[in-house]
Structures are given as structure tokens and as C-alpha cells.
Write a structure and sequence with these properties.
Layout: E1 15-24, H1 28-39, E2 44-47, H2 55-59, E3 64-65, H3 79-90, E4 98-99, E5 107-110, H4 113-126, E6 130-132, E7 137-143, E8 146-154, E9 157-168, H5 174-178, E10 200-203, H6 207-216, E11 235-240, H7 242-250, E12 261-266, E13 271-275, H8 286-310, E14 318-322, H9 342-346, E15 354-358, E16 382-385, E17 397-399, H10 408-414, H11 417-437, H12 446-455
Parallel strand pairs: 1-2, 1-9, 2-6, 9-17
Antiparallel strand pairs: 3-5, 4-5, 7-8, 8-9, 10-13, 10-14, 11-12, 12-13, 15-16
Helix pairs in contact: 1-4, 1-11
The structure holds flavin-adenine dinucleotide (FAD).
Length: about 475
């Protein structure tokens, strides 16, 4: 069937303000990018499509932030992201870096996602970042290959903001897409990306009874510690429940076949965040995200019932919260000046323009499989180069977060929140340096950027 069209009338859009740096997307990478740009002297606007800051950490009720140390125990993320962790600890929103009980990685940072929203908002405000909420970026303006302004639509209408440099932290690279950038993800078939999920929180769990079960059946769990070590912990991190999941699927209680789930329990409050739902979609298609919403909300109900019926200590549990939107692991990845290759991650690659470090396992969820069986451990840390944050052709634009220029398995490591925040610091600082000197981000002095980042606590590879 031929596609039908309408022609919209031409319109005049008010240019409301000129900023040195505009950050699109106030999520994991975006809040740090905006704070970094503002603290480095740039007049900065942060534009967020939703009603709160914090991105996936807040919207997904994320169990914990990860990616702060590599497998050798070397710290790979510091600077502004660590300042955020310190602020969370001071606000009672996190115990800071604690052991990963599952042994998958060395440590994790459990987060109270409600307080997280308040803390990141306060940090942006104190740093002098101007905020525009409920304002999706819907279009951009270009002068040749140079991005010059973003256009947002909100309850005030459609308005434009000029920018010396734009940092795209929308997760889905919406700005880069509107700017005409090329994408590595164009080669990825629909449904081949990692699945989307909805995390949910259960209340009313008797953790002591649950830990009795872990004591009696340690073989049902991936444990990095002896079961006794879980007693008395404020946060209990469990990975398993395979036999119960199998039985529940056979009994028709859950429609999705899974052989493991991730359980992150807050022992004192009897709450736990559960990571188990999944659905294969192209997350850049609104109609497919509509289908995912239906499928995942049904799965949340089924798995809540699963806990009540099959998990010791959870007989009286109830659904106390669910993610405010479908969580996306993978969608668009820009084609950058440098592509972070899968093997760069595996071999701990070094780049002369390295501006941050990654080091999380290649954490790839198979959209059709029942487990995380495609995960791959990496021996140590690796550099992420500035070139992976810079689109190949379009200037005036940097990208940070899960839409950087990386091959699929490389991104499966780099998409973790600790790494995304470090990307935010690198991209925000680069944008401020570019705007200060009236340069395109691709033309800045990389050694100056590296020196500035290091002076502000960021961790770069030796020699950078
Ligand atoms: C189910 C699930 C579980 C995960 N578990 C963990 C975990 O346990 N630990 C961990 O460290 N990581 C985990 N991750 C990975 C991690 O959460 C994400 O990869 C990371 O948060 C991505 O950061 P980001 O800044 O790229 O995107 P986001 O944090 O999603 O931020 C993007 C922001 O941009 C806004 N936005 C989008 N489009 C526009 C637009 N057009 N205009 C304006 N604003 C826009 C969004 O509203 C959002 O605020 C998980 C991911 C998922 C999906």
C-alpha cells in the first residue's frame, strides 16, 4: 500500500535563547554531562523529555549502578560520577560500593532510585545548569554539516535553542538521528537487539525465610560468597531460582521461559527489585514499544504471582512499584570517527584519545534465550576514545551513553551506568572546551581535554 502523506504548513519557530552547551536527555550520562559542562564554565541547558532527571537508574528502579571497577579490582570510574555516589551516601540513598554477592563482578552501588532523582536534580541546580522539563528534542538545525540549534516541543509550543555544542544523551541518539548522522545499528536486524524489560519491586518479603532457602539449596544460585555471608547484609543480591522458574512455566503460571532471574533485596524494608521480564522489539519504533508495554506489564503480574506461589518467604509479597517506562538495553549506535570494536573490549585496548575507561563484562541478553548465557567476562579495563563520542560527519555534536559508536558486544559492556556517567563527564567537558574556544568538538585539543578530566578526578588509562 502506498504511504499516505499530509503537508504541514510552514511555521516560524521562536529562537528562545543561545547556550554554549545544550545537553539533550537528563538521564545517566546526561546529568553528568550537563554538570561537567556547567562546572567547566559553559552556560548550559539540560533538556529532558520526561518529568524527572536520572534516566534509567530512576525510571527502571535499577537494582544497582555497576561498572566502577574492572575484573582486576582496579578502579575505572572516578571524578563527577564518584562525587554523585558520595552525595548519594550522604543523603542515605546508597551504602556506596559494596560486594557483588553473585560473583559476577566485584562490586556494585545499590541506589534508592527515589532519592537518586532528588540528588541529581540538586547537583544540576547547584552547578548552574538551566533545566527544561517535559521537552523532547524533536528537530535540529544545521549550517552545512554543523549542528547549530535544537528544537523542542512542550506545553509552551515549539521553540528553538541555539548551541555552541550539543551533547546527545537521549539513549536512542534522537538528536544524532535528526541531524542526519549515520548509524552502525542500521546493520542490526529488527529483533536482533537486546530485549527490553520492565523491572519491578515487590514488598512484603521475609528475607530471613528466603535466606534459609538459599542456605538449604545453594546449588540453585550463582553465589560469589558462602550463603552465611548474606545474613545481616542490608542489600542481598541473588541470581538464580532456576528450578522454581521452570516449574512455574510448566504449570502455566508464567508465560515466559526463564532459567534465572536477578533479585536485589533490601533486607530492612522487606523489598526487592526483580529483573526477569523481557520482550524483543525495535525500541526506536513507538508501535513496537506499545506492544512491549502490553507484554511486559502482563509478565510483571505473572512473575509477582510466581513469587507468591513458589518462593519461600514471598508468600505475602505484593507489587509495590514498577518501572515508569519500558527499559531499553540497545537501540541506535552512531557511526563515529572511531568505532569501539568488540575485540577492543576483550583485549583492553588503549587509544591515544582515550577519555574514559570501561571494564564491565560483555553483558548481552539474548532476546530469544532464557538466560544471560551470552555474557563474557573481560580481563581488565579498556579505553573509550573521544572518537567514539564524535559522529563521523556531523560537527557541533557529541554523543554519550548507550548510543555511542561501538560494535554490539562492545556496547554490551560500555552501556553500564558507571561507564555511561564517565562518558557524560568526558563529553560535557569536551563540549565546554569547544564552546569556550568557538571550536567544533572534533577540533579541540585532546591533550587539554585529558588534562582537564584528570584534574577533575576522572580516571583515564596510563599515559593519557
Ligand atoms: C532492564 C535494564 C536493567 C539494567 N540493569 C542495570 C544494572 O543493574 N546496573 C547498571 O549499571 N546498568 C544497568 N542497565 C544499563 C543502564 O541502565 C543503561 O544502559 C544506562 O542507564 C543508559 O544511560 P543513558 O544515559 O544512555 O540513557 P538513559 O539513562 O535512559 O537517559 C536518557 C534520557 O534521555 C531522555 N530522552 C530520550 N529521548 C529524548 C529526547 N528526544 N529529548 C529529550 N530527552 C530525551 C530520557 O527521558 C532519559 O532521561 C540496565 C538497563 C536495562 C534496560
Amino acid at each position: 500500500m502506498a504511504l499516505r502523506h499530509i503537508d504541514e504548513p510552514a511555521r516560524r519557530t521562536p529562537l528562545v535563547d543561545d547556550y554554549q552547551v545544550v545537553v539533550a536527555g537528563g538521564g545517566t550520562a546526561g546529568v553528568i554531562a550537563a554538570i561537567a559542562a556547567a562546572r567547566n564554565g559553559a552556560r548550559t541547558l539540560l533538556v529532558e523529555r520526561g518529568g524527572f532527571l536520572g534516566g534509567h537508574i530512576a525510571s527502571q528502579l535499577l537494582e544497582h549502578s555497576a561498572g566502577w571497577f574492572d575484573a582486576r579490582g582496579t578502579r575505572i570510574v572516578g571524578g563527577l560520577p564518584q562525587e554523585l555516589v558520595d552525595r548519594l551516601v550522604a543523603a542515605g540513598a546508597s551504602p556506596g560500593h559494596v560486594r557483588d554477592d553473585t560473583g559476577y563482578t566485584l562490586s556494585r552501588v545499590p541506589v534508592n532510585h527515589e532519592l537518586f532523582k532528588s540528588v541529581v536534580t540538586a547537583m544540576c541546580h547547584e552547578s548552574g545548569v538551566d533545566l527544561l522539563m517535559f521537552s523532547p528534542v524533536v528537530q535540529v538545525l544545521r549550517d552545512g554539516d554543523r549542528l547549530t540549534a535544537v528544537i523542542v516541543e512542550n506545553k509552551s509550543g515549539r521553540t528553538a535553542y541555539a548551541a555552541g555544542a550539543v551533547v546527545d544523551c537521549t539513549g536512542d541518539a534522537d538528536v544524532a538521528e535528526r541531524a542526519g548522522c549515520a548509524f552502525l545499528s542500521e546493520q542490526t536486524g529488527a529483533g536482533d537487539t537486546q530485549p527490553v524489560s520492565l523491572l519491578f519491586k515487590l514488598g512484603g518479603i521475609d528475607h530471613a525465610a528466603l535466606l534459609d532457602h538459599v542456605d538449604a539449596h545453594p546449588e540453585q544460585f550463582k553465589l560469589g560468597v558462602a550463603p552465611a555471608a548474606l545474613r545481616g547484609e542490608a542489600h542481598v543480591n541473588l541470581w538464580g531460582f532456576g528450578p522454581q522458574l521452570k516449574q512455574a512455566h510448566a504449570d502455566g503460571v508464567v508465560s515466559l521461559a526463564r532459567n534465572e532471574l536477578h533479585y536485589s533485596g533490601w533486607a530492612l524494608t522487606g523489598e526487592a527489585v526483580i529483573n526477569v521480564t523481557r520482550c524483543a522489539v525495535d525500541a526506536t519504533r513507538a508501535d513496537e514499544m506499545g506492544r512491549a508495554e502490553v507484554v511486559l506489564r502482563r509478565q510483571v503480574q505473572e512473575f509477582t504471582e510466581f513469587f507468591r506461589r513458589y518462593i519461600p518467604g514471598a508468600q505475602n509479597c505484593f507489587l509495590s512499584a514498577s518501572a515508569s517506562c519500558v527499559g531499553v538495553r540497545e537501540s541506535r549506535r552512531i557511526r563515529g570517527r572511531t568505532v569501539l570494536r568488540d575485540d577492543d573490549v576483550r583485549r583492553g585496548a588503549r587509544f591515544a584519545d582515550g577519555v574514559l575507561r570501561g571494564g564491565f563484562p560483555i553483558d548481552s541478553h539474548d532476546p530469544k534465550g532464557a538466560s544471560l548465557d551470552a555474557a563474557e567476562h573481560v580481563a581488565g579495563g579498556y579505553d573509550i576514545p573521544l572518537g567514539a563520542l564524535l559522529p563521523e560527519r556531523i560537527d557541533g555534536l557529541l554523543v554519550a551513553g548507550r548510543c555511542i559508536s561501538a560494535e554490539r558486544r562492545a556496547l554490551a559492556s560500555a552501556r553500564i551506568t558507571g561507564t555511561c556517567m564517565a562518558m557524560g563527564q568526558a563529553a560535557g567537558t569536551a563540549a565546554a572546551l569547544a564552546a569556550h574556544d568557538g571550536l567544533a568538538p572534533g577540533a579541540i585539543d585532546v591533550t587539554l581535554l585529558q588534562r582537564t578530566l584528570k584534574a577533575q578526578g576522572a580516571i583515564l588509562g596510563d599515559g593519557a
